[in-house]
Amino acid sequence: MNRLNLLLILIATLLVAAYASWLLDTFRQETRQARQEQPDVPDYTLDEFTLARFDTRGHLQQRLTASHGRHYPAGGRIELGRLRLEVTEETPPWTLEADSGLITEGGDRIRLMGAVIARRPATGTQPALQLQTRDLLVLTALSRAETDARAELQAGPHRLRGTGLNLDWRQRRLRLLSDVESRYVLAP
User: Any bridge partners for residue 110, and if so which?
Assistant: First the structure.
């Protein structure tokens, strides 16, 4: 083989390598562009599922059940349909229900959207509680919930209404923030 043939083979190899590199870069750019154009496409869906959160000792703190969920990789959010959240760290446990919701920040925030109903069964000394509000944000790691919307709490014949609500399950405290009205029925 003479030098000319070797040189032609070397040039052909370099041209093939350059073409392959150009094709790979083009493919990567098109893939990146397609992802940027469709960031709100779910990468997986869930039907009739349950998620549970435990404390460091393995005790159940919260259980979330939903009819369906869609996970979106952009932002890592999960959109929920017909959900039920049980907060079991307080005895008796609270149950919250909403038609839709959104999990963000790795599960540390659960937004119950639209009408929300929360219930706590009666204890030996306290009546059952029912809370009705809208757009409730549950901060799962802090065991708290809050809303700026109107809220109504009913405990037996007694009723409280107000705008804005803070609920702390660890401290067993519920606060209505403004425009509070109450109806307290005295026992005969």
Answer: 103, 138
DSSP 8-state symbol, 11: H
Range of the domain at 60: 44-183
CB 104, CB 76: distance < 8 Å: yes
What's the token pair of residue 97?
Answer: 């229900």
Number of domains in the chain: 2
User: Which burial class, exposed, middle or buried, applies to 78 when counting CB atoms under 10 A from its CB (0-12, 13-18, 19+)?
Assistant: buried
- The enclosing domain of 85 has a CATH number of 2.60.450.10
Q: CA 86 to CA 91: how far, in whole Å?
A: 11
Give the neighbor-by-neighbor strand order of the sheet with 77-87.
44-54, 60-72, 77-87, 94-104, 109-120, 129-139, 144-155, 158-168, 173-183
The DSSP 8-state label assigned to residue 106 in this structure reads G
Cis peptide before 92 (omega within 30 of 0): yes
In the 8-state DSSP scheme, what is residue 187? P
- One domain for residues 140 and 55: yes
The distance of Cα 178 from the centroid of its chain, to the nearest Å, equals 27
Cβ atoms of 142 and 167 within 8 Å: the answer is no
Whether the pLDDT of residue 13 is over 90: the answer is no
pLDDT one-digit tens code per residue, 116-166: 999 999 988 888 999 999 999 999 888 899 999 999 999 988 999 999 999
User: What span, in angstroms and rounded, lies between the C-alpha atoms of 134 and 148?
Assistant: 9
